[in-house]
Amino acid sequence: MKIYQIKLTPSSSFSSLPSSDTLFGAICWGIRRIYQDSSDKNSLVDILHEFQLNPKFVISSTFPYIEEANTAIPFYPRPILECISASNINKMAQTKKEIVCIISRYKEFKKAEYVSASLFMKILNGTSEGELFKIFYNGGIKLTGKLLMDDEEYKTIFEKLNPGSKSMAVQKNSTDRLTMSTGGEGQTFYQQEYFTSPAFKLHFLMKTNEIDFFRPVFRYLKDKGIGGNRSVGKGRFKIDILNEVSIGDDNSRKFFTLSRYIPDVKQINLESPAMFYEIFPYRSKVDSEAEFKGKDVWKSKVMYLKEGSCFEANEKREFYGRIPVVKEINRQKIYQNGLAFPVFGNIGGSR
After folding, report:
1. What is the CA angle 41-22-330, rounded to 5?
2. Which of 14, 239, 243, 302 sits CB 3.0–4.6 Å from 218 for a disulfide?
C-alpha cells in the first residue's frame, strides 16, 4: 500500500490528540455516512468484514506538526528503547557530583513524548537511547515541552515560529433537566482542552491504495469534527492530504508502531531481545448520536501497546495485529482497531 501524510489544522480547541482508534472510528462513520447506500464492496459492513485480512486502510495516531509557510517539522512518537544502565551513567560522569546531574538530565530527557522526524530517522538507522542522550546532555538536542528536536531545527525553525499548545481544564456548567437551569441538580464540572497557536498543527500517516475513496470522507470529517465534544464545536480540523511519503528501512524486520497496537503473538518474534513496549488498559465508548442512541455504549476493555513500542516481526507485512469485536448492539458488531502501523528500521544497531 502507498503511504500518505495527512495534515490536520485545528480550527477549534480539542480534547486530545486523536489516536489511531479515534481516527479509525471517525473514518468508519464517515464511510457509513458517505457510502451508506452503496451495495458493492465499499459498504462499511463489507469493509470491516475484510479488514482483518485485507484492510482498506491502515492508520497511525496523530502527532505534532510545526509549520509556517514552506517550513515544517513533523514529529513522531518517541521510540521506546532500552534504557541507559547505571553502569553507563557512571562511565559518562567525571565526578560523583556529575552523576546526580546526569540522572537529573536523563529524567528530563525521558519526559519527551515526541521526536522530530530527523531524530526519528537517526533512531531507525541504529542510534541507541544512550547515544541520543549524550547528544542531548551536550546541548545538541533540545527539549521544549514534550517535543525533542536537534539544536539546528530549534534555532532555525522552532525558535522563530514559537509554536505552542496548552492543555487546560475548562469549567463547564451542567443544567438540571427539570428546571433547565444551573440551579437544583445543576453543577459545574471541568473538561480538559487543548489550545494551539497557528503554527502548531497535527499530522498522521495513512496506508491505502485508494486515497481518492477517502477524499469525501475527509471533507465530511472537516465539517463533523473528530474526537470528543464535537456536538459543542470542539475537534474541528481542516484536513489536507499532503503527499505520498516513504519512511523506514524495508530490509529490516524490526519495527516501531505508529498506532495503538493489539498484537497477534503469532506474528511477533517473542524471543527477540529488541522488544520494548508500554502496555495500558483502554475502554472507549461507541458513538451514541445516531443508530446507537440510548443504548449502552461502553465497549469491552482492551489492552493496548503504546505508539513507539518496538518489536521484531516473524515476517515482513504491511500491518500487524488484530481488530477484535468488543461489543454487539442490535446484532451489529463493533470493532476496536488494534492494527499496528509499522515503520521498519535498523533499531538498536542490529537487524
Report:
1. 60
2. 239
DSSP annotation of 154 reads: I
Q: How far is CA 24 from CA 191, 197, 321, 346, in A?
A: 23, 26, 14, 29
pLDDT tens digit sequence for 271-312: 988 899 999 999 988 877 667 777 788 889 999 999 999 999
Q: Phi and psi for 156 in degrees, rounded to 5?
A: -85, -25
DSSP class per residue in 164-212:
-EEEEEEEEEE--TTT-SSSTT-EEEEEEEEEE-TTEEEEEEEEES-HH
Dihedral of CA atoms 327, 332, 336, 337 in degrees, nearest 10, equals: 170
User: Angle at CA 312, nearest 5°, toward 306 and 317?
Assistant: 90
Q: Residue holding cell 502507498?
A: 2
The angle at the Cα of 245, spanning 311 to 128, to the nearest 5 degrees, equals 35
Distance (Å, whole) CA 320 – CA 207: 13
Q: 107, 110, 104, 134: which is closest to 278 by C-alpha?
A: 110
The answer to whether the CB of 140 falls within 8 A of the CB of 131 is no
Nearest CA to 275 among 283, 286, 287, 263? 263
Count helices and strands (H / E) in the chain: 9, 20
The answer to whether residues 291 and 351 touch, using CB atoms and an 8 Å cutoff, is no
